[in-house]
Amino acid sequence: MYSSRTAWLLLSPTLIILGLAGLVPFFYVLYIGFFNWNPLGVNDQMEFISLGDNYRKLVFDNEFIASVWRSIRFAVVTLFFELTLGFLLALSLLSSFPLKSFFRSVHTLPLVIAPIVIGSIFKLFTVQGFGPLPHFLNDWFGYDLNYGRSAAQAFWLIVIMDIWHWTPFVTLTLLAGLSALPQDPYESARIDGANNFQILIYITIPMMIPVLIVVIFIRLMDSLKIVDEVWMLTGGGPGYATRFTGIHIWKEVFEKRFYGYSSAMSILYLYVTIVMCWLLYSVMVSRGKSDDE
Amino acid sequence: MMSKISYKIGITFIWSFLTLVTLFPIYWMILVSTRSPVELFGKPDLSPTFFEKIYWKNYTKPFIDGVYSEYLFNSIIVATSNAVLVTVLALMATYALSRFKLAASENIFFWTMTNRMAPPAAFLLPLFLLFSTVFRYGDSNLFDTKIGLILLYCVFNLPFAIWLLKGIIDGIPKELDEAMVIDGAGLFTIFYKLIIPLAAPGIAVTSLLSFLFAWNEYLLASTLSSVYARTIPTGLSEFVTTTGSNWGFMAAVAVVSMLPALLFLVLVQKYIVAGLTFGAVKG
């Protein structure tokens, strides 16, 4: 009834904003990545070097590579705990028990709190001097928690914070998936005399695989992005112990101001996440197609 | 029968424990915000503070004597404007994507999604340079302005808003639009009389979640503002450098910045899963 010109007119503000603030920065950072540009140096002009020099340097940059491995290790560790815990909790929410909706509401709470506030909550909870956690750990178990000095403690404290923050997301997503499963296979299995454990292994988990893949990808991408909470809690320290890729780039850009080199870092970082995003999208699309059949 | 009851007791016990684990750190932060530095010293006291004994200075010092009232004002302006802008633009875009068969609509959707998923840290440098030097009009640029932040948050909120509204607007029969066109209604009347009333719940959820995202965002706000556009999360992070003495202030500011989340929790709870997974899992 309307011409497609009207459609493009309605779409144009969205496309313009997304283009200016999403696409332009992407190509700009790609462009700067080919230059040597250090505004604080002796020569503060942009200077073309080559298409690959910054990237070649990056591959041998131990600090950057270490930060990427640190992020990946963090993502995998948190994913393991959140997925296990979240799956068990989602299964438990399928049955009915007293106060269930209250428990679920409280469980949702961490998801709406700002990451930076979550960092503050954990900082106040674990701070040396008056924080309850170090105090009670010391009183009850004689364990000395001081993440300002111990790299391992800092890393695991952030893992715990992330589990506290994001397990509810895994629980609720898997619960949504579990509630949508067809009931026929369960009835057949019961008639065949399968026990609960067999039903879980041979029916529930295989049917949940598409949902699990979505959850895994989203959690991996979010973990690779993490900055705010970590910055608030440990500031990336002690030393480099919790300096994940996002924090590393942020600090490199605004402390050293090697613009060209930092751009190459950003692009590499972006590349990893875009590849993962594309995988997620293909899974979603193929799932949508199988739903239609 | 017996085992079923013990199972229920066990589950309830586990969930009670989890609820305690979730609430206890938040409870502690609220306690810290009500105590003076002297009261905080030494063994942590977990008993609630009586109303008469609340140390109000933690709240009045940053918010009345300090600059945090400005930060709060900035946050309210940025988050509200962003929510309104996102909702209006997303309604227009979604209507276009829903009612017209556009050749590129699939690609547009994928592209908007990558915008949402991309790590903000990778965009810090180009956005900083673009905002401070390239996007300028005369002497004014976007760096350290509220408008800059409002526009920027659209990149993250629009994709989600479009996705959420798409399902709802697709559900409004096309025949209703056509009937209105025959009656001589223009596009504006269709929006005003038909789409907005029928999609009202979805519009409310979209704007609330957009508000929440803009309110909570830290990294981009801290990079792209220095004095005039600083929001509450950036103000909160300022306590990181001044460690030691200001725990009460930090807790008070954190409590205030947590308030909208608590208010909206009840309203948006049902949609959080859908929002965070982009509808890949129907909540």
TrEMBL record, chain A:
Residues 68-280 form the ABC transmembrane type-1 domain. Keywords: Membrane, Transmembrane, Transmembrane helix. The chain crosses the membrane at residues 7-34, 72-97, 109-131, 151-178, 199-221, 258-281. The keyword Amino-acid biosynthesis does not apply. One of its GO terms (cellular component) is membrane. It is a multi-pass membrane protein. It is found in: Membrane. InterPro entries: MetI-like, MetI-like_sf, Sugar_ABC_transporter. GO terms for biological process: transmembrane transport. CDD domains: TM_PBP2. This is ABC transmembrane type-1 domain-containing protein. It comes from marine metagenome.
